[in-house]
């Protein structure tokens, strides 16, 4: 597949990277390093970001759903302004920013690919020499050698791959490069053996022809190599044929050429074993010296601290063993200090590394014991949304896995910090905080703290209005649990009521509608809450949409809400006046649940009480008067009837 890479430090340029979806991020970075090498910027330290998430070297493109034609951002290790200044500085003074081992690996790969270009160019020339030699084979005694040598030449010249270090393999040969090299090597060695045998046969035939006259036997050969005719010795060149001499010389020379081509094909076969990333990828993923990195993290140089935070982040993402090694070497305290650095890049990498470490419950306890939680909470107030998101993710790991530490999050201004993060409006941050709120609401102590914090209710209202469905779901589940703890807590939030009635307009998920309806039940069962629900704008429209959902559970909950509202006599006239009969009609026609039917029947009877009848008559009269322009004649009250099931 092919994906594109853009970066603000290379304005106006878009780079194309070819990878397989199962390749690691380190392999993709190796491809990018080769591109930067051509631009003279191979010393630039960078990382990839996709859909707002930084990509870890040890994971694959498939893990991050990076597909064909996706656009990935190249983010320098330093912030853009610092990166540009470092680029200029390195260009002027030759200062290297990249890891020395990675740079050496890149240079080794470039050397291999340059050699590959040279080998293929030389082999192509040698093939044409072999082709001309095949034509010459037709004049030998063994003229049929022309056919197999021609076939070998055609196979080689048609199937030889085209390669350039910048473009890689291009064109179609129908064979994999390694397979071509292997097959062609076998053919060349077969040709070499055949040429050597024919050369020996040619020499043998030449010797026999030269030293033995036609019709003579070996007994007539003299001791010094001559031949006897009529008792006289004749010269050794008597009877030699020029074609045999030509054949012997040709196959000897042909053996040399074929040996040269076979050696080149073997070198190519070995060279083809190396690909982009063969040396670089292990260097990016391998375990660095943790002790050295922590020493750099504690040094006073900003560049060393940034590099250490970056490498520790990559190490933490590689394996659990590396996580425990970092903690054992005292990495938690170092990363906590780096998370408070004045350099945003260093802060961001340190917080990411902490988030990776905190995926292990055992490390979470040590992190909290070392006083890391308040500092992590303080990062929620930073203006950088990426850093806030990483801090929220790290806190979410603690809230999800460590029930004993949830109370620590809910106290010491932790809830206020989380509510402040919600006000940032970032989708990822809001989703992470919504998940934290839900985890906290699972524990009685933290749940009690939440219902006594006014800011939490406002934050939950904002989360419930999010267009992100997962955030909405988590927020509504939290509200439902808090309502179990203290229903008065949510009834006082009038904005929550409006938010719940607006759910059908912001979400199409019926499960989210059901959560909203369950919370609305608390309003319907409370006298003040019911009054607010009756007078809420858009209530009828929202209930009609709930009733038309086709979900039996939602319709049962809605029917209970309707019945609770009808049981309050003082609201029936208002409900009749705002067209609440549409809700009853919708439920009758849409539901098939028996419990919902019973609730609707009872609500209909209450609605048809004298007060409801009078208001229904009054509304019908007003409607008729407005349509005809005439006064409606007085009528006796009559019962409003709805269709009942057979």
List the defining traits of the structure above:
two-stranded antiparallel ribbon; 646 residues; mainly alpha; 5-stranded mixed beta sheet; 32 helices; disordered C terminus
Distance between the termini: 62 Å
The outline comes out as elongated
Indicate the structural class: mainly alpha
Give the strand order of the largest sheet, numbering strands 1, 2, ... along the chain.
2-1-5-3-4
Helical content band = 55-70%
Largest sheet report: 5 strands, mixed
Mean pLDDT: 80
Please give the number of β-strands.
9
The number of helical segments is 32
Which band does the percent of strand residues land in? 5-15%
Query: Which stretches are poorly predicted, pLDDT < 50 over at least 5 residues?
Result: 80-98, 215-240, 611-646
CA radius of gyration is 42 Å
Write the topology of this structure.
Layout: E1 2-6, E2 14-18, H1 25-38, E3 46-50, E4 53-54, E5 71-76, H2 80-93, H3 100-136, H4 145-159, E6 162-164, E7 168-170, H5 177-211, E8 227-229, E9 232-234, H6 242-271, H7 280-285, H8 290-298, H9 302-318, H10 320-328, H11 331-338, H12 344-357, H13 361-369, H14 372-378, H15 385-401, H16 406-410, H17 414-422, H18 427-440, H19 444-451, H20 454-464, H21 469-485, H22 487-491, H23 494-501, H24 503-506, H25 510-525, H26 527-534, H27 539-547, H28 552-567, H29 572-577, H30 581-590, H31 594-607, H32 610-628
Parallel strand pairs: 1-5
Antiparallel strand pairs: 1-2, 3-4, 3-5, 6-7, 8-9
Helix pairs in contact: 3-4, 3-6, 4-5, 5-6, 8-9, 9-10, 9-12, 11-12, 12-15, 15-18, 17-20, 18-21, 20-21, 20-23, 21-25, 25-26, 25-28, 27-30, 28-31, 30-31
